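The record is given unchanged here:
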Amino acid sequence: MQRRNRHSSNNNSETFTIWTSFTDLMSNAFMIITLLLVFVVAQKKPPPPPGIVCEPKIINLPSEQYSFDSGSAVLPNNLKSDILQGNKPGKILKLIEETLSQQEQCNNETEVLEIIGHTDDQPVNFLNCNNPNNPTLKPLDNHLENVATGNQNINTLCPRSNADLGLMRALSVVKELQKAQNQTRLSRFKKVQFRAYSAAQLFLPENQGFAKKNMRKDPATRGKRRRIEIRFAQLGEYVTPDEN
């Protein structure tokens, strides 16, 4: 009788030990799952506030409003004042800061402003670059870096093509925006970098695609093609296709 009780007691003890180990294992597993869920929830970005448009804006500066002199990249006075009025932001700068704020609320923080110069298809008179009566004009290829670093004025460059002209105008806007960064206190705007690009006469406005040849005969279309675009982007990560 005593042997049977002792045997029964051993079985109960083993059962209790196994059950305790199982409950400890389940408890630890539950704790790990809970911690993972807390981590995932913490990493999940909150939805944007109601009424916030998350599609990034493209700021368009058309020639009808901001007209460069023919073949020139010198900023029109009204474009300069709409970027910076003394030490205060102009309406272009205010729109940039507003868009940066909207993108931040949409969890799409902007790191770089892409300034793109667009022209019409009217050929550039590049012969002026070799004009002995105006020796101050310098070919873009030899002096672009000096202008970008602030060691040379933009009005000393001579465009040999619409691609040159578009880049010069974009760079001229970039230099004014960099000046505004140093003179204003717009917190988001002060963090961004700038890139200057030229699209020459290649693209029609408002995402209409590639331009067709010989569209210069339409004055209305030609005017709309001359513009500066400001796009909001991220720097991204450089990757190279796998050699395999």
Notes: The CA atoms of residues 144 and 157 lie 8 Å apart. The chain has two domains: 1-44, 58-233. The chain is about 40% helix and 15% strand.
